[in-house]
Design a protein that fits this description.
The chain has 569 residues and is mainly alpha-helical. The chain is built from 23 helices and seven strands. The chain is flat, with a radius of gyration of 38 Å. Residues 354-373, 552-569 have a biased composition (Polar residues).
DNA sequence: TGAAATTGTCATCAG
DNA sequence: CTCTGATGACAATTT
């Protein structure tokens, strides 16, 4: 919402940041179901692609020209030879093998947002022998400085120029790769980071710090987050749209928070791995890049701040898919789009806990903070525990790496202990570490099982609810059917009674077969009155036995006919 | 500031 | 008897 400055108290403007995303998503769903599609795009290879011509026209000069001149419904557009169909798909992975194809396709189609700068960036990344970080595009330093706090904008790093890459969708429908994002949140976060006194320590690990005998030096310089803006900061992106991908990612991670969305465990695991490789980098149309510097120059950000930062990243980044083979092969494409995306050398951004040898003297500040938020927090915490173990191992001078203690099988572990003549202290430590690590993992599994169990129960409840609804509907339908049948029987009886002049016995039989639950109310009074009149006649003729003739009936014919007929039913 | 959530650890049990 | 995994309970910490 924004307030009209002239009519501050009475007028508001509402602009939904989610709306564009919803529209695009809906269009893509329609396209997939071939709803309202009015054009077929065919490649030279014969592959076809149904689409909405308005969407095509809105993002490609080529289509704009072709489509605007068409007036036939369900027209067919044949693409130039150099255009490959995958460029129109929801997501396309950029790799060495296809980048030229994509470039040619994009060029031929005149995709408005996928301009040369994109490939200026991508091609060196794929084909240059230099480190990717060395080809990091230049940044619009001047423009970003305006909106940045001094301590985060004064960067010595390579800057991005105004023509920085704008990662955008290859597909007209795609929003996962490119979307607007709020700068302000990031800036606020960065400000908080720099101002937050807690950044130099993490209370949760005081125990660890104490054990390591390393007091936190509160006089450490405040953290400096290097900040890049890769495009002119958009003024209308105050509220960033955080569409599908971030939602999907959050969905995955939500399970840990107890929101029981269906989660593919493999996906989640992979996601966790990938999150470790995320850089604090935001890269989209109206966004700025936040990049955590490598370990030699980075400062520590405390966990909450990191979580918030990461959350912002999750919500805002529209990064490029990494060329890391592991990532492209093992993750769903959308996951890569969300997670991979380091424009920088992966080696500097992978979250790695320092090995024991490296650990000395690093304390917490040796930790990269690229791994934060949600599940990675868990891993981070685990890493601190591991670090604690490593430190202890260092103190008692264990002759083998800590990792082995946990990872190796029982037999191997026993063998190792047998081979090494360990002191009592070492032995204790090793067993303790193994036990705790195993237990930690067991606790995780246990909790996960619990969550899964709850989730399954939730599903079961939903299923039963649905089933109940269906049964209620069925009951209602059957009830109506019964009523209808009763009414027709009633009408039939009425006709029979009025036209057949039945003797009392038959009337009595008829009354006998009326069921209480079948509301044959319409003809019961008629029977009663008929019986009543016939009874009078018979009484006059046979004064002594008239009542007995109908005595077996449910109907008490001495009574006055009731209006509702229930008394005889 | 307090409640809720998260996570590691310990104790205990069963296999 | 020891080891291991599962799990309840608790505490520390974060959200």
């Amino acid at each position: 919402f924004s307030v009209d400055s002239h009519r501050r108290s009475s007028a508001f403007t509402f602009e939904s940041s989610l709306h564009p995303g919803h529209v695009l998503r809906s269009l893509e769903e329609q396209r997939q179901r071939d709803v309202l599609c009015d054009v077929t795009v065919v490649t030279a290879e014969g592959q076809s692609f149904r689409a909405h011509r308005s969407v095509l026209a809105s993002c490609s000069e080529y289509f704009s020209q072709r489509v605007s001149s068409m007036c036939i419904q369900n027209a067919v557009i044949t693409l130039p030879l150099e255009v490959r169909l995958f460029c129109l798909h929801l997501q396309t992975l950029f790799c060495k093998e296809n980048v030229f194809d994509i470039q040619a396709s994009v060029s031929a189609l005149g995709f408005k947002d996928l301009d040369g700068a994109c490939f200026d960036f991508l091609l060196p990344k794929f084909f240059s022998s230099t480190k990717p970080s060395a080809v990091r595009p230049l940044c619009c330093k001047k423009k970003c400085k305006k909106s940045l706090p001094r301590d985060v904008s004064d960067s010595d790093e390579v800057l991005l120029d105004d023509k920085e890459v704008k990662p955008v969708a290859e597909s007209p429908y795609q929003e996962e790769v490119a979307f607007e994002c709020s700068n302000s949140d990031i800036i606020k976060t960065l400000n908080n980071v720099s101002k937050n006194d807690k950044v130099t320590q993490c209370p949760k690990y005081r125990k660890f710090q104490m054990a390591c005998g390393k007091e936190i030096d509160k006089s450490q310089p405040k953290p400096v987050i290097k900040y890049y803006c890769n495009s002119p900061c958009s003024s209308n992106s105050e509220s960033g749209s955080c569409p599908l991908v971030s939602r999907q990612v959050e969905d995955l991670f939500d399970s840990r928070r107890g929101n029981f969305h269906p989660v593919d465990a493999n996906k989640k695991e992979k996601l966790c791995e990938k999150k470790q490789q995320i850089e604090l980098q935001v890269n989209s149309d109206s966004t700025c890049n936040v990049k955590k510097i490598d370990e030699t120059e980075e400062e520590i950000i405390d966990r909450p701040e990191r979580s918030r930062l990461q959350s912002n990243i999750n919500n805002c980044n529209g990064n490029w898919t990494s060329d890391e083979p592991k990532m492209t092969n093992s993750c769903p494409v959308w996951l890569n789009a969300q997670l991979g995306s380091s424009l920088q050398d992966q080696s500097t951004s992978v979250w790695q806990y320092p090995k024991s040898s490296e650990y000395e003297g690093t304390s917490q500040s040796g930790l990269s903070s690229v791994n934060s938020g949600d599940d990675s927090d868990t891993e981070e915490t685990a890493a601190y525990c591991e670090a604690y173990a490593r430190e202890r191992a260092r103190q008692v001078q264990l002759p083998f790496p800590v990792d082995q203690i946990v990872e190796m099988s029982r037999n191997n572990f026993q063998e190792l202990l047998d081979k090494q003549s360990l002191t009592q202290e070492q032995l204790e430590l090793v067993r303790d570490m193994r036990r705790r690590s195993k237990n930690r993992l067991a606790a995780k599994r246990c909790r996960k099982r619990k969550l899964d169990c709850i989730y399954n129960l939730q599903c079961e409840i939903n299923k039963l609810k649905t089933e109940r609804e269906m049964l209620i509907q069925e009951r209602s339908r059957l009830s109506q059917l019964r009523l209808k049948t009763c009414n027709s029987v009633s009408a039939l009886c009425q006709r029979v009674c009025s036209s057949a002049n039945l003797p009392p016995e038959q009337l009595q039989q008829l009354a006998k077969y009326t069921a209480a639950e079948c509301p044959l109310t319409s003809y019961m009074p008629l029977i009663d009155s008929l019986l009543s009149s016939q009874h009078k006649q018979s009484t006059q003729l046979f004064p002594s036995g008239g009542k007995d003739d109908i005595g077996c009936s449910n109907t008490d014919t001495t009574q006055e006919p009731t209006h509702n007929g229930n008394s005889t039913a």
